[in-house]
Amino acid sequence: MSAQLRLDAVEAGYGDLVAVRDVSLEVRAGEVVALIGSNGAGKTTTLRAITGLLPVRRGRVEFEGERLDGLGPAQVVARGIAHVPEARQLFPTMTVRENLELGAARRARRRRSDALDLVFTLFPRLRERQAQLAGTLSGGEQQMCAIGRGLMAAPKLLLLDEPSLGLAPVTVKLIFENLRAINARGTTVLLVEQNVARALELSHRGYVIENGRIALAGTRAELAQSGHVRQAYLGL
Prior knowledge:
- The protein has ten helices and ten strands.
- It is of the alpha/beta class.
- It has two domains: 1-80 and 155-236, P-loop containing nucleotide triphosphate hydrolases (Rossmann fold, 3-Layer(aba) Sandwich), CATH 3.40.50; 87-153, no CATH class.
- It has a six-stranded mixed beta sheet, with helices on both faces. A four-stranded antiparallel beta sheet has the order 2-1-4-5, with helices on one face.
- A hairpin with a 2-residue loop joins β9 and β10.
């Protein structure tokens, strides 16, 4: 199966700092692919390079055969990629519904309504909280809202940056159950996640990034059985 998303020898960074170098990976349509690594390894930088939030200094990013490097974030979204960033980045003084509708600003009214129904089906609590200010939600509810906002654009590919960060175990379980349901509906997922056990449980394949470079790649089973992954990331 050909790759839906492909990164080829990508380099990106901040100012004079090169944060990722020679990063190559691929995500096939319908997959969940995990990108795992420690803090500062380059996971978030990789997602930002894909979505145009950071310029790609070298290499190339392709989505469905079309180059993305050089495009801005709005152009990347228009091609079917949604990014749920770390720390959610909701608008706290806007309601839940207003935050969700921002994710579908480019869609026709009927399609926005259909997307909203889907989000409320996946996250019933957001339906209950839709008139509430986003800044007053719990951490778990804010994460649901951030994921829901990403889904409002009906993406072909959903990029998720640390969706379990700071959440209680019961909420993490719910979030990952919903991510599985989202993938089952046909949305491809690239998941950045420090909870490696959860990430591998959900994913089909994965990549380990260390010091800005891909250090290891394999299927879920191969990574789970890797001595390096078990020692460095699973504490086994």
